[in-house]
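Researcher: Can you fold this with zinc ion in place?
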Amino acid sequence: MRFDDQTVLVTGASGSIGKAIATAFAQSGARVDSIRQQNPLGRVAKPEEVPTRFCTLRLKRQNSSPVWLWTSMGLPTCGSLPVGRRSWLKNWRVDVFKRGVVVALAFVTGSFFGSIEPTFLEAVPIYQEIRSQVDSQYHSLFELYLSLHANPELSYREVKTSERIGKELESVGFQVTSNFGGYGVVGVLKNGEGPTLMIRTDLDGLPVTEETGLDYASRVRVKDDLGKEVGVMHACGHDIHMTCFVGTARLLCRLKNHWKGTLLMIGQPAEERGGGAQAMLSAGLYQKFPRPDYALALHDSANLEAGKIALREGNVLAGVESVDLTIRGVSGHGAYAYMTKDPIVLAAETIVALQTIVSREIPAIEPAVVTVGSIHGGTKHNIIPDQIQLQLTLRYYSESVRTQLLEGVERIAKGIAQAAGVPKELEPVMKVVNSDATPPTLNHPDLTRRVRRATSGMLGPESVVTIDPSMGGEDFSRFGRTAEKVPICIFWLGAVSSQRIQESRQPGGKPLPSLHSSLFAPVPDLTIKTGVQAMTAAALDLLQK
Ligand SMILES: [Zn+2]
Ligand SMILES: [Zn+2]
């Protein structure tokens, strides 16, 4: 069906059916203008008097008046039947009418517009199938989530996590390769001739001490690379990603007769340090395993409602450079500062001056960020140290801005040292940490449109929203930046209850904890179910028979 220039109003279908029809229309490429629910009498029905509400779908067309399409198929479902006492009738209605209405409406619509694609008829039952499969898997997925959440591992140390993910893939029939590019896991499932789809999850946690107060909170403490004891937490929600990933693997195995092609499902280590994707690619991911035709990933969102996903075509996540900056001076007694070159004062001046790169050097319409995330130096009140260590993160979308940021940091740091009379041989040393760098993430437009259509079909168009690009970074970008030019798409998965979002918007409301916060606590059930449903629906669309 092509509805690009048509307006259709479908009415009379009960709530879930109407939603299914709406999503099928949305899948056909039509722009859904609005979906309204009402009963046919034109008033809002009380929940107890109308078992399922009516749904009105309006699709917009250009340069033409609306066409109305009326079906009364849903009418018998309306009335003033008390739901509880007439549950047998409700069940009967669901069985008979759900399928019946969709098929009947499809034919009415088909004859009206002359042609109809078979996916329209097939789409709805498969979504129902996915939904019921997710429901039946949920208990076990939640247990997996609890275990992953309580046992996070830092980047480059994902020993047990990768083992668990490997076992989960193996148990549903994937051929698994472990310890690939560090603790990377690669699972391959061949299911006849067809395209190859890669789905990626990340595995690592963060050096954050959890303060959510949840009874399944992580209590893990380890020594970091510098020997300092730190708490470890899935503060970026990679435990949610892994659970959705395993759920998707299970569902796609169970729904094998609905798709053909090859699934390449990978557990990627060290996302938080920006090095895991590159490590897997350097180890020969695209050479030693089937080369993907598409690659998908999801990331949970700390400010999007659970039950929704968000995505956009093109720029979605920024490029990241990590910089170590050592500001050197001449040490001495705190009382005789005039005899020193105080690197603490130089560091303070440098930090403030660095802010002028974004505010005064880069065009205002170009996105850029300079953040000094760490400053270390000194040992005692009355000693002026000989050096201070700064750690910076730089964010950008365009290559010219990236160059400008790196050059600007070095020029300003050296200029301030020079102005203070620091000898040339002690000028600041800047080191770009290449292993942490990630290029900007660009969602392939065609692939993203397909993901949007499939997920709109699954979740309903109102649950698939468009977002602005973010200055966050993701090394998932690397999977689309090799010579193979694999189209990639990452989408955001809502992880916050709508009530919590509403509360945060009230005057004086508690702000939502961000990703990486010690208070970040995704709502597990709806987030996981939505993630599995969305990813499975997208995969089935890309690997359709
Ligand atoms: Zn993160
Ligand atoms: Zn993350």
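Model: Folded with zinc ion in place. Residues 8-116 form one domain.
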